[in-house]
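hiii, so i know i said id send this last week but things got crazy w the move. better late than never?? heres the sequnce for the chain we talked about at the cafe, plus the structure i predicted for it. fair warning i was half asleep when i ran it
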Amino acid sequence: MTRVAVLHGGISAEREVSLNSGRQVIAALREAKFDVLPVEVGADLGALIAALTPKPDVVFNALHGRFGEDGAIQGVLEWLGIPYTHSGVRASALAMDKSAAKAVFTASGLPVIPGRVVGIDELEAEDPLPRPYVVKPVSEGSSVGVHILRGGDNRRAEIARQWRFGRTAMVEQYVPGRELTVGVMEDRALAVTDIIAEAGVFYDYESKYGEGGSRHVVPARIHPDVYARAMDVALAAHRALGCRGASRADFRYDDTEGEPGRLFLLEVNTQPGLTPTSLLPEQAAHCGMDFPALCAWMVERARCDV
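okay and structure toks below
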């Protein structure tokens, strides 16, 4: 029987999300008849290495955010020689760094939103872009730290002074319209989901993980040409970054002046959420794959590149 260690928790701002993902994965893998070793990850790397001794057959990486999704834990697992799920070191690091990922997408001819990285002192002093614009951390996920600054909003200096995500931020033009997402499993795009945040603002952390925070329409009821384009771009982005296993591409779709509108790639998530409200499992189910089968598929494609 294959022994699978499930890493969950971690030390990022997304710890609670990861704990939730981990609980779902542990139950699913046991249902799929794997020998499961739950490993709650904290700040002690030595304790993590001890928990992985003797080595399991596979590590299921259910960590999210920094140190779990950015290539750091992937490097440790490569060092230990343990096959693991999801993307490797390079793809994970590229995808987590929004500036680096945007450069890769631009070089690949994929549609991205104009923006740049600015120092927090510059943001505190003045608007770096015409309003409205979006401020987000360069290396966080789950919409942690994302703000939309519109005309008449006086929070800019306060946001800069309270910034806790390093000395820089990514700023991008604000694109109105819809939030779309596409799951990818290796060489196959699954579906397009239209995400409707019930708060009516944008798909923030609470909308993603709060009970009733959002509605998911799958398949999205959008222009067929845009649907096909989103599927193609998601798969192209997965390949451009060198991802493996499953990923999820997020988009903004501006249909405010009618369809077909303008489609923009926001980012690729190399560790898509696996919670009860998460999008990848929902799309897999839409395609006929239940959650235990999805988790088993990830385990079967685990590998170590060393």
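btw Residues 3-86+295-300 form a domain with the Rossmann fold fold (CATH 3.40.50.20). thought thatd interest u
miss u guys!!
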